[in-house]
Amino acid sequence: QIQVVESGGGLVPAGGSRRLSCAVSGNIEDISVVAWYRQAPGKQREAVASIAISNRDYYPDHVKGRFTIFREKGGSTVYLQMNSLTPDDTAVYYCRVDTLSTVGGTLERREYWGQGTQVTVPS
Questions:
Q1: For the segment 75-111, what is each residue's pLDDT rounded down to a tens digit?
Q2: Furthest CA-CA distance within the chain
Q3: Is residue 121 pLDDT above 90, yes or no?
Q4: What are the φ/ψ torsions at residue 19 (nearest 5 degrees)?
Q5: In angstroms, rounded to a whole number, what is the distance separating the alpha carbons of residues 38 and 116?
Q6: Rounded CA gap, 86 and 19, in Å?
Q7: SS percent in the chain: helix, strand, coil, step 5
Q8: How far is residue 1's CA from residue 10's CA, in Å, rounded to a whole number?
Q9: Which of 63, 78, 94, 116 is a Cys-bridge partner for 34, taking CB atoms 3.0 to 4.6 Å apart?
Q10: Closest CA to 88 of 118, 122, 117
């Protein structure tokens, strides 16, 4: 089992920065990928960053250069550093943790989500 808790959201002025945290606990040795998603009102949830076990990171074009995902050194917290924020970045941000493990001799993939943290960038 994995527990996922996001924090760090809040009100951010346009052009400002914010760092979100994703605290992960439980069977962290099974983690394969950690990703940040967001969902704005009336829109579908979208991925904005992911980091693999190799620390290779991935971003969609519309946040590349502004968002950075990274792991706490020696720990299990994953951060999302967001810079140059605009009102279009207003959303609830979620952390998703994927795990791979063997259960009863079978390889099993699971995903775990946090409760989300609200980021608001007023226009």
A1: 889 999 999 999 999 999 999 999 999 988 999 999 9
A2: 53
A3: yes
A4: -115, 125
A5: 8
A6: 15
A7: 5, 60, 35
A8: 29
A9: 78
A10: 122
